[in-house]
Amino acid sequence: MHSALLESGNAVVRYRVMTGEDDNRARRGAKRIVGRSEVALYCKDADTIERTIEALRLSDAELVKRPEAEKTYDWQSAYVEPDRTSADGGGNVLFGVAWYDDGFFAQKAEAYSDRMHHYMFDRLGIAESDIEVTHWRAATAA
Fold first, then answer.
1. Which parts of 12-101 fold into alpha helices (H)?
2. Do residues 40 and 95 touch, judged by C-beta distance below 8 A?
3. Residue 1, SS3?
4. How many Å apart are CA 93 and CA 15, to the nearest integer?
């Protein structure tokens, strides 16, 4: 089936644009992931994708400067998945958030829907309807 997808031209193409803690295990260190958020932002054109990637990179640069004790979450790698039907070079920017503190995860998992994030998404050119976030909690050992 995989080869049939490739032959039909329907294979999903993703480009990694930022390396996160999932691809650089030294960033995580001994921390244990208690939850994960998967984020998909649909960007209507290539300029919106570029602005979004730059915003993620700037945020990542600030995050890695924090003292280890304050790192209650970290970015996972970010990808661009081009929309082949977009004449303007649009597509999805996909990334994850690894959460290391259960209380912080419970408190901040929905932060993407707060006023500050709405302002940021608006400045980037991303509509609220083009934001999809899925949260996962890590299974605990019995």
1. 25-28, 46-63
2. no
3. coil
4. 10
Query: How long, in residues, is the chain?
Result: 142
Calculate helix-pair angle for 115-124, 46-63, nearest 10 degrees. 140
pLDDT in tens, 73-94: 999 999 999 999 999 999 999 9
Cα distance between residue 44 and residue 141, in whole Å: 42
In the chain, the amino acid numbered 70 is E
Rounded Cα–Cα distance for residues 131 and 92 (Å):
10
* Alpha helices, H only, 64-114: 102-108
CA distance 54 to 48: 10
Helical (H) or strand (E) element with 35? strand 35-45
